User: Fold this.
Amino acid sequence: MRIAYICCDPGIPVFGTKGASVHIQEVVRELRAAGHEVVLYALRSGEHVPADLADLELHLEAVADVAPAEREQAQVHAAERIASRVIADGADLVYERYSLFSTALADITAATEVPGVLEVNAPLIDEQRRHRSLVDASGAEQALRRQVGAAQVTVCVSDPVADWVRRRTADMPDAEAVAARVHTVPNGVSVRRIQPQPADPERVVVTFVGTLKPWHGVADLITAAALARQQWSLRIIGDGPEMETLRAQAERLGVEADFRGAVAPEEIPTHMAGSAIGVAPYPDLGGLEQQYFSPMKVLEYLAAGLAVVASDVGQIPQLLEEGSQRHGVLVAPSDPTALAAALDDLAASPQRRARMGRDGRLLAEERHSWNRVVTRILGLAGVAEGGVR
Assistant:
């Protein structure tokens, strides 16, 4: 089956290092592994092309870095050009990562009657309005409604995102039918790419993987390291606008943090080698609606066989739970003292760390692999082995 994968978000390089880029690459890998032909249509390429995706057919429609109103219109036109290209190229299934102003999926399905999957990873209209600039809010709303209405299935990374989609489309004429096609499918992890590795025998390494932005809570992690009573070392894998501020904080507090900088997705396992604990110190962002994400870093820690310490926010408890068992330690958000205590406790308990690591790896394999995620999405879309039902 020929699948057109579309990403019209100018903030996401499909071959980049950020979580959204990794998500795209992993979904494409699983689609190809299932025997499908995948053609990628996007606005940005990126410089970190994995070897196993080097032969992927990619079509780009660039959007210039201009004023917000002009950029929004440029996104509309870029999506229109991509839709025209997909219609001309042909496809058996359209899979689009939701972005502001794109109606590519709706345009393609209307012209060709092929089924469409819309993947929604965040409440982008609210995000854009709160953190950036949204000029044509009405246009963004209309685009979302058209896309969700046209999709055979809309898959959302978390329940709060699914609820957001349903609220935004609640006044559509066929709202009840549309809502029934909205499903929650959390992010996955590559259990092939990320494997357990021996921990450093000389020291307990606590590792963070992610973009260095305020909503990842790395400042709290560095403060926790300064409060630690046990001996453990801190490794930070990732880059972002807070890098220099965090370096200065670590130096001021006397924390010896190993900042690794930006790392290509395929190199993450190498940089995680020797780690004993993976940490996700998300801060308190003001309630469930702002904790909508399905954090891939937590799943990567599980797949790597690390003990996990994470903030008790959003979807994290669900990711770590299996029946009555919890495969990680949850702490209050924005509380460096509680975070330090949890890390100290695990640093002093090698047997507990090992048990958590083994159980977490099994959880990743059985519930969170990308293979399971993509298989479920295709099943919701009515795609059987070899094509569309």
